[in-house]
Amino acid sequence: MPLVHAVNVSKSFHHNEVLKGIDLDVDAGQVVCLLGPSGSGKTTFLRCINQLETIDGGRIWVDDDLMGYSDRDGKLYRLKDKEIAAQRREIGMVFQRFNLFPHMTALQNVIEAPVQVKGESKKAARDRAQSLLDRVGLGDRTAAYPAQLSGGQQQRVAIARALAMQPKLMLFDEPTSALDPELVGEVLSVMRELAADGMTMIVVTHEMSFAREVADTVVFMDGGVVVEAGPPADVIGNPQHQRTKTFLSRLRSEHD
Ligand SMILES: Nc1ncnc2c1ncn2[C@@H]1O[C@H](COP(=O)(O)OP(=O)(O)OP(=O)(O)O)[C@@H](O)[C@H]1O
Ligand SMILES: [Mg+2]
């Protein structure tokens, strides 16, 4: 089974059907970039994967674990909050806004969850945090508070913090869209390295050059459905559907 196996996922908010039967498979070590216009359901889908939202229909497996439910003879039973929290710990998430704890240094931000949630020793957590901060190019800024770091640096700390939990899967929701243009590259290059090291990633992004170079699969969503999915050379380079073409040309004109 693929590391992520989502089948016919649906989700409504009140009467607004936001996801209308999404299928997605992601093999271990692969990178999927998710594109689509505002409101198409990208964030909602990521939040369903790690059970920040409950789903109304369909099923999502991550590493053979049915997310949020146990299946007894074809009937689904909601897992206890504690069990869902345990599933969620296996998945790292990086948001558009960095969401660092403002009163903690970069190092403290990174060791917080391993120590508090996993009960790791401070020494072990600190050693790994140091090497993770080295890896994202911030080995010399471990004592800085978020307010003393640029947006790009904060986002790299946020990535290190997610990695500190040793996730099986990383979800990124427009991780560079709140950054000044000159800071985008440093975050994308950390994500590139992560992908090259074999991390399984689902990335909502409108950075087309990143998607072209790094994604194994590009998925274009619109109106809560997957319109088109495939290798970037197809979906970005030679889209088949009018909605994809329109979206990409609008994106290009915004860029120029
Ligand atoms: N908690 C919520 N309650 C009600 N409606 C919601 C909620 N979250 C999202 N929605 C609605 O679901 C739809 C999809 O939203 P979502 O945030 O998933 O889109 P998106 O593709 O991530 O858009 P963007 O590119 O703007 O981030 C929108 O119509 C949105 O208003
Ligand atoms: Mg979104």
From TrEMBL:
It comes from the Bacteria. It is a peripheral membrane protein. CDD domains: ABC_HisP_GlnQ (cd03262). GO terms for molecular function: ATP binding. It is found in: Cell membrane. PROSITE patterns: ABC_TRANSPORTER_1, ABC_TRANSPORTER_2. Residues 4-248 form the ABC transporter domain. InterPro entries: AAA+_ATPase, ABC_ATPase_HisP-typ, ABC_transporter-like_ATP-bd, ABC_transporter-like_CS, MetN_ABC_transporter-like, P-loop_NTPase. It comes from Kribbella yunnanensis. This is Amino acid ABC transporter ATP-binding protein. Keywords: Amino-acid transport, ATP-binding, Cell membrane, Membrane, Nucleotide-binding, Transport. Belongs to the ABC transporter superfamily. Pfam families: ABC_tran.
